[in-house]
Structure prediction request, 104 residues.
Amino acid sequence: TYVVTDNCIRCKYMDCVEVCPVDCFYEGENMLVINPNECIDCGVCEPECPAEAILPDTENGLEKWLELNRTYSESWPNITQKGDVPADADAMKDVQGKFEQFFS
Ligand code: SF4
Ligand code: F3S
Prediction:
């Protein structure tokens, strides 16, 4: 599966949802997550993300993000169309430590 990681937080560009063939993105206030049970590993969303937030879970150190994607995709609503991008998305793109500061 692919997972959404901290680079998405407060950026939330949503280009990813437009290309997913199985509509497996779910929307929280500050970021999106992928449902790992629904993702078919096609990889088309990865290069679409301007924040490079989407990674294959085969990369090292992503266990926390896989669990977070799994957990929140069960309670957040499905999203299939791009909405309004946060006004400060570009300014938030290279900010470090977003999980600690902004994840809710
Ligand atoms: Fe959707 Fe493919 Fe990305 Fe999985 S890898 S979330 S199926 S676009
Ligand atoms: Fe987030 Fe990138 Fe999608 S910033 S909403 S994972 S396009």
Remarks:
- The pocket of FE3-S4 cluster (ligand 2) is lined by residues 4, 8, 11-16, 32, 49, 51, 53-54 (CB under 6 Å).
- The mean pLDDT is 97.
- The chain has one domain: 2-80.
- The radius of gyration is 12 Å.
